[in-house]
Amino acid sequence: MSACETLFAQDVAEADKTNETYYVSNSEFMLAVFGDEFSNARPIVVSFPGNPERVRYKSRIGRAWQGGREAADGMPADTNNFFSLATFSADHAGKFRRQNEHFQALHAIILDDVAVNGYADRLALAPSWVLETSPDNYQVGYLLNQPLQDAGLADRLTRAVGAAGPSGRGSSTRRGRLARLPCAVNGQHTPPFICRMVAWSPQVRYSVEELVAGLRLEMASPGRAQRQKPFRAQERPRIGDPVLIPRAEQNAVLCALHHEGLYKAALTDGKHDITCPWRNEHTDELDADTAYFEPNENSPIGRFDCLHSHCADRNIGELLRFLNVESDASSMLATIRVVPGAIHLVVDAGERELAHAGTHYQRGGLIVTVITDPTTRETRIQEISPLALVRALAGAANWERFDARSECYVRIDPPARHAGVLYDSNSYAHMPVLRGLARQPYLRGDVSLMMNAGYDASTGMFGAFDPREFSIPESPTRADAQSALLVLEDLLKEFRFKGDVDRAAALAAILTAASRPSLAHAPMFHVRAHMVGSGKSYLCELITAFATPQQGTPTTFPAEDEECRKLLLAELMRAPAVIVFDNLTGDLVAHTSLCTILTSEHFTGRILGISKTATVTTRTLFLSSGNNVGPVQDMGRRCISVHLDPGCEVPAARDFTRPALVEDVRRERGRFVSAALTIIRAYFVAGSPQSRCKSLAGFSEWSSTCRQPLCWLGLSDPAASIFDAMAEDPDRETLDRLLTAWKAALGPASAMIRDAVRQANASGDIYVDLREVLHDIAGDRNGEINRRRLGRWIARYAGRIVNGRRFVRSSGHHSAESWRVESVSSVFSVSSGSTEESVNVADYADAYHRVSNGE
Questions:
Q1: Omega cis (within 30) before 300
Q2: Cα–Cα–Cα angle for 236, 241, 244, nearest 5°?
Q3: What pLDDT, on a 0 to 100 scale, did the predictor assign at position 33?
Q4: What is the pLDDT of residue 226?
Q5: Backbone angles phi, psi at 18, to 5 degrees
């Protein structure tokens, strides 16, 4: 027995059997389908040799079958032989044509392109015949017990059969549909495939009702059978959108359930308790355990579940048929019609419906979505590709185009061309803006706390957290803040800090991690020590746990600015909570892109692989660690250092009282993050009292949120290391040497670069220091001083004050620039903690100049 016969177990009529097939001549087959008595109607047969795709249309017109046992010479077995499933009457000229206006009756329906291992195992009705038309591909036919003469009903039946077929493309939507005869070949193959009748049971016949129920067909209502004409320019309505058919304001299924008296109550979001329409079939007619689920991404037309055994095989399609609700109406989606010449309207409608779905956003010129990695459980922002956009548009709306052959609109996939136009758009009028992700409650602009997860239109943030894990008082007091501070300080007992300033800096890093989504700018934090095993990476892990529940992924610090720019853009596209540069082997160099990101809310760059520029937000915490290395140059004012000093010879051999400290914080993350946010919230509730400390230009918002609350609670200034780093800047030391030597050798008079070089080469102890510093700045391989390089260096640092002196450009009509050293005899006041003190310019003038000018 063949595979298909095994699949369709049924009583098969006796026939001549050859090589596990049933031999049925074309005449016998036609007699079984149509009988031998005709009045003025005939089925149409078509026969031609060759590949059907290459045969002219005239050869496929066909002729009327005359009935009886017609000779087979008109349909040789080595040609493509077809027959119509319906009979047609003759026209005024007496010719029989497969035209709708001459339709007489439908005698059979077919499911085409049925694979043995594909759709066939879902057929609930035994077929009247099964014909193998190509290798492992079958045509399954069902005979009607009475010819169907209602043209409208025939149209709706064939459309439903086509939609229920394996392709779902409406392959049987015409009354004049052709099917293959048993004695024939399929010329599309080389050599031609000989058709094989593998199941033949002409006594198996069905009524329309039995076919609809058995094949689970979704029949359209009679009103839908009426053809719709295409939109033409002169026919488009003056009012309304010719492209977009809006989604229904009410769920048609829920309305129908209410109307039928079957609705009980809403259970959860999208789930409803209902009475089963087939309750009388339940044991003891029990009315329980039946639910309707509203449409979602996984169930486009909804879902019907009844836990009673009698309804185990019933699905949403049967519920819709019972309620007389069309599947399009149940989807609760808008319909977008692809009208020629209206690509702008189609693309705009697609964007609008995609935005309404609430799963996609715009971010820096790209369409993105929020996803959670199933392996790591990390939530991140993911930009979508053009093909992914096609899929997203398909789930956001129903798409249609006008089919000239059937003279109605048919379902299609979103056109790739229209999706591409949307993808390449420079701006999106309807897509909500996504600024970033928050893994915990966060502060709005008015310092109120946002405790709800999901997208917040007022801030543009997406909360990826469970609000139930966090408990933050609405109006915390200073006592609440002090209690919360004790909780955080207890976590730092395992670490040996060099001083109180470093402990305060670590606490500031924790507060920054907890509140980073709310801050436009925040400094970087660098953990440094004298040797390995001091706990640098472990402290970074602890800080990371306050920013995200996932474990951080350290990366290598880039060697060049171009590499840094590409790395940071790729990372920031995902909106990570933390970026960690672990175990630096050199100083924290001031790459231009890194400096820009730390003091700017947005960063723009070209995306690798596509010709598009993206602008991303920089609301990410930056951490780094290393032994005896730290921020230099412009990174000095952008990075807070945390010094660890274990005070022992082998730090890695120390014993810890809480070896699973980071795991404990992740397990109770809601409690610890709530403590950090309580400190910040209590400070704002108290009126944001300002402690006297030096201004930190560029980070005023961070200072008010993370620095001032700690000073308010009596801790040292966590940003003190920034001013120390600026004072220890190597460039500052070199400039100080040059200013001192220049003043000693040249005095207060102006001098050109060539004069300074000539003077440095003069003999005498007074010129030795000048000669050495000039060689350090601009010496070449030959031992000479490169005057051009020296001039550029002085021009770069002109005006910068070090120990009360600076270079200024002299006025005059010289052919080359001349410089002189100017003394600045001024004193400025700064605040440290709560005590105001006067500081000599020799100590802080340079730091003051750079900070006040936003360098």
A1: no
A2: 120
A3: 92
A4: 41
A5: -135, 120
3-state helix, strand, coil in the chain (%, to 5): 35, 25, 40
Report strand pairing: 578-584 vs 621-627.
parallel
Do 25 and 183 contact (CB within 8 A), yes or no?
Answer: yes
Query: Closest Cα partner for 675 from 499, 481, 848, 390?
Result: 481
Half-sphere exposure of 711 toward its Cβ, with a 13 Å CA cutoff? 22
The region that residue 168 occupies, defined by phi over 0 for left and psi between -120 and 50 for alpha, beta otherwise, is: left
In the prediction, which pLDDT does 508 show? 95
| Residue 684 β-bridge partners | none
pLDDT of residue 230: 35
Q: What is the DSSP string of 105-127?
A: EEEEEEEEEEETTTTGGG--S--
- 180, exposed or middle or buried, with CB in 10 Å at 0-12, 13-18, 19+? buried
Q: Which pLDDT belongs to residue 414?
A: 95
Distance CA 140, CA 114 (A): 7
Q: What does pLDDT average to in each consecutive run of 10 residues of the chain (855 residues)?
A: 39 44 86 82 88 65 73 74 90 78 89 64 78 88 92 85 58 68 89 91 92 84 46 36 80 87 86 89 80 84 87 87 81 88 92 91 90 84 91 91 84 93 90 92 86 90 92 93 95 90 94 92 92 87 93 87 89 89 87 89 78 82 91 84 84 74 92 95 92 80 92 91 69 79 84 85 79 82 84 83 84 73 58 36 38 39
- The answer to whether the CB of 412 falls within 8 A of the CB of 491 is no
Q: What number of other Cβ atoms are within 10 A of residue 691's Cβ?
A: 18
CA 216 to chain centre: 36
Q: DSSP string spanning 662-722?
A: HHHHHHTHHHHHHHHHHHHHHHHHTT-PPP-----TT-HHHIIIIIHHHHHTT---TTHHH
User: For residue 232, which amino acid is it?
Assistant: R
Q: Tokens 């109406």 appear where?
A: 329
pLDDT of residue 60: 63
Give ∠ CA 503-509-512 in degrees, rounded to 5: 145
Look at residue 8 and give its three-state secondary structure: coil
One-letter identity of residue 552: G
Question: In sequence order, what E strands does 384-538 have?
Answer: 397-403, 408-412, 436-438, 442-443, 449-450, 454-456, 461-463, 524-529
Q: pTM of the entire structure?
A: 0.59
557: Cα separation from own chain's centroid? 28
Is-contact 453 659, C-beta < 8 A?
no
With a CB cutoff of 8 Å and minimum separation 6, the contacts of 458 are: 444
| Token pair for 208 | 């329309």
Listed residue (465, 462, 453) closest to 435, CA to CA: 462
Contact indicator for 365, 426 with CB cutoff of 8 Å: yes
Concatenating the DSSP letter of every residue in 190-210 gives SSPEEPEEEEE-TT-EE-HHH
